[in-house]
Design a protein that fits this description.
With 611 residues, the protein is an alpha/beta fold. The chain has three domains: 10-64 and 77-210, Rossmann fold; 297-540, 3-Layer(aba) Sandwich (Rossmann fold), CATH 3.40.50.300; 543-600, Alpha-Beta Plaits. It has helices spanning 63-72, 80-85, 87-92, 95-102, 124-137, 161-174, 187-197, 204-215, 219-233, 260-296, 311-322, 369-374, 376-383, 399-413, 457-462, 470-473, 529-540, 556-565, 586-594, and strands at 10-11, 17-19, 108-116, 141-150, 178-181, 200-203, 300-305, 343-349, 353-359, 387-393, 419-424, 483-485, 501-502, 505-506, 515-520, 544-552, 567-573, 577-585, 598-600. Helix 14 links the parallel strand 10 and strand 11. Bound molecules: guanosine-5'-triphosphate and magnesium ion. GTPase that associates with the 50S ribosomal subunit and may have a role during protein synthesis or ribosome biogenesis.
Length: 611
């Protein structure tokens, strides 16, 4: 068995247990508590006998559904409700924990990671780092971490019995409120572990559901999260036994001979059906909106990508630069799943005209299938876009794995559009990795996957001038500058020469090349945005008609309309009216013709330059 990292008695720099010294009462002293973006408790839990399973109450929910929801999902903001709702919890919890919870302090989380012999493409460190980020994003303070490498899972407890005892001991020593497992737990494992560890245990899916519940702002987002929570809960009801009694809803709710579990299941199924109906309504509404957009011929560009890649920051940068209407733009934040509800903004794209740019929810590896299913309505924005900008955090050495993860999810969703890979955060990419993405899609280069060396923010900071001229220093930069063209979808790109050399290692390229090209940008500094604009324009112009049209002087409205609907390349006043040369959506050309405009030298649609 591989060496196992010991849980130390003190919170280290990175927020995990890392050092020996305990505080005055034998409790660990955090040197630097993890920043808590929104203080609060990790709300997810499935043990119905214990508190904290309620999702945020919504006034519009029907009584029964509300009850099921309260029992079924993560709790609302702040954990004080927990103590109020379950007096038994007060007895179980040590006094200092209760005091902290009442004070609204962050929940203290102990992380448990398990690596199997044959595992996914992320390293153990990467998995655990991501779990730590998830916990932090849920508002918890990570106080320790325990790892185990095993050949296979222990059926009853996932980890071995000795390890369970170690976790139980660490939980007590570190005074952790919650133990978070990196793997999904079966209901039986959850129950056994809670019993053995003596405290709240949740798994990764619950943690992600919890973050989603906290972030959902729109009604649609809330419905989707609740649906995902109930779908997660339903198969876990069996085995929870009498503890679930509160789901039954009390006297008068049970049919003759019906067990409590059956009642619970029935209620949850009914609520799931209700939620599906409501979401179908949302979907219908969206599709009406979409049809309107399609009729108007406005192209849609959707930003997709791994969580925290910088989609929202790039969205804001694009809206700032090309936006037509003033208004608040969401800013990105350094936490996972910051964006839940999609945001669509209209911009005037140079060389194209009006374009709708959509910011979307981020993806993550091992994304719970329920979440994908529940978020289908939201993701339809993605599925119907004309072009996907696949944003990736190029400052992370593991970016190729993230690209593959996102590509696989998009494929599963049935997204068929061309994808332009946008290597973001190039300002934070260290010297020697400026060509990140240059060899993207060429097939695996290194013998060992994932050996690209870290190009961390710290390295970048130390690197001095390392990032200043990355755009200029980039590898093959055909037109437009900084865009690496690739072959058509589903094939390897045309750029030559093996895997990209990155830093001290070989940057492994993702398995397949599904991008329409690669652009390197920094959403922060704005570098590369012009290249991105040109690459997107080159693609979208393929759907535009280049026309020369005569607009009579007595129809200034049509002239304004051409300016609004497309890009005007030239305009000349003549004896009868204005002659405009413009690129316009096909639908707009038809409309103008019907309105009485005269067209000259109608060119065939142009083929794109870089795609
Ligand atoms: N150094 C650097 N940081 C960036 C850049 N773009 C975004 N970030 C930071 O990366 C973090 C995540 O940015 P977001 O825009 O919220 O990322 P996102 O992809 O929208 O994340 P989710 O909504 O959680 O999926 C924030 O702290 C940003 O400030 C960039 O170009 N350079
Ligand atoms: Mg975002």
């Amino acid at each position: 068995m591989a060496p196992v990292r010991r849980v130390a008695g003190r919170t280290g720099q990175d927020g995990t247990g890392a050092a020996e010294g305990n505080g005055p009462e034998g409790r660990p002293v955090p040197e630097r508590p993890d920043p808590i973006p929104e203080g609060g408790q990790v709300r997810a839990r499935l043990d119905p006998g214990a508190p904290g399973r309620q999702v945020r109450a919504r006034p519009d929910a029907p009584a029964e559904g509300g009850q099921a929801r309260k029992q079924a999902g993560p709790a609302g903001k702040g954990g004080s409700r927990r103590a109020r709702q379950d007096p038994a919890a007060e007895d179980r919890d040590p006094p200092d924990e209760r005091a902290r919870r009442r004070a609204g302090g962050p929940e203290r989380a102990l992380l448990v990671g398990v690596a199997w012999e044959r595992d996914g493409r992320l390293s153990f460190d990467e998995r655990m780092d991501e779990l730590k980020e998830l916990a932090r994003s849920a508002g918890a303070q990570v106080v320790g971490e325990i790892r185990q490498r095993r050949g296979r899972p222990e059926p009853a407890t996932l980890i071995g019995p000795g390890k369970v005892a170690e976790v139980a001991d660490a939980r007590r020593r570190l005074d952790a409120d919650v133990v978070i497992f990196d793997r999904d737990l079966t209901p039986a494992q959850l129950r056994n572990l809670e019993r053995a560890i003596g405290g709240k245990v949740i798994d990764r899916t619950q943690l992600i559901l919890d973050i989603f519940a906290a972030r959902a702002r729109s009604r649609e987002g809330q419905l989707q999260v609740e649906l995902a929570q109930l779908q997660y809960l339903l198969p876990r009801l069996a085995g929870m036994g009498e503890a679930l009694s509160r789901l039954g809803g009390g006297i008068g709710t049970r049919g003759p001979g019906e067990t409590r579990l059956e009642v619970d299941r029935r209620r949850i199924r009914r609520r799931i059906a209700d939620l599906r109906r409501m979401l179908a309504e949302v979907r219908r509404h969206r599709s009406v909106q979409r049809k309107g957009r399609q009729r108007a011929g406005i192209p849609v560009v959707a930003l997709v990508g791994y969580t925290n890649a910088g989609k929202t920051t790039l969205h804001a940068a694009l809206v700032r630069r090309f936006g037509v209407a003033a208004g608040p733009v969401a800013q990105g934040r350094d936490r996972l799943f910051d964006t839940l509800d999609p945001t669509v903004r209209r911009v005037k794209w140079p060389g194209v005209g009006p374009v709708l740019v959509a910011d979307t929810v981020g993806f993550i590896h091992d994304l719970p299938p329920h979440l994908i299913a529940a978020f289908r309505a939201t993701l339809e924005e993605v599925l119907e876009a004309d072009l996907l900008l696949h944003v990736v955090d190029a400052s992370q050495p593991r970016w190729p794995v993230d690209v593959e993860t996102v590509d696989a999810i998009l494929d599963d969703l049935g997204a068929r559009q061309p994808r332009l890979l946008v290597m973001n955060k190039m300002d934070a990419v260290a010297a020697g990795v400026e060509d990140a993405g240059a060899g993207w899609g060429e097939g695996r280069g290194g013998e060992e996957p994932g050996i690209a060396q870290p190009a961390t923010h710290a390295e970048a900071a130390l690197g001095g001038d390392s990032t200043a001229d990355w755009a200029a220093a980039g590898a093959a930069s055909p037109v437009p500058d900084g865009v690496v063209p690739a072959a058509s979808q589903g094939t390897a790109p045309a750029t030559g020469g093996g895997a990209a050399r990155v830093g001290r290692g070989v940057m492994p390229a993702p398995r397949t090349g599904r991008a329409g090209g690669v652009v390197r940008v920094s959403a922060w500094t704005g570098q590369g945005l012009d290249d991105l604009a040109a690459a997107v324009a080159a693609f979208l112009q393929q759907g535009l008609r280049r026309v020369t049209v005569l607009v009579p002087y007595h129809r200034p409205d049509l002239r304004t309309r051409i300016h609004d609907a497309g890009t005007v390349e030239a305009e000349e006043p003549g004896s009868d009216g204005w002659t405009l040369t413009a690129r316009l959506p096909e639908a707009e050309v038809g409309r103008l013709r019907r309105a009485g405009c005269r067209f000259e030298d109608q060119a065939a649609p142009e083929s794109g330059a870089v795609f």
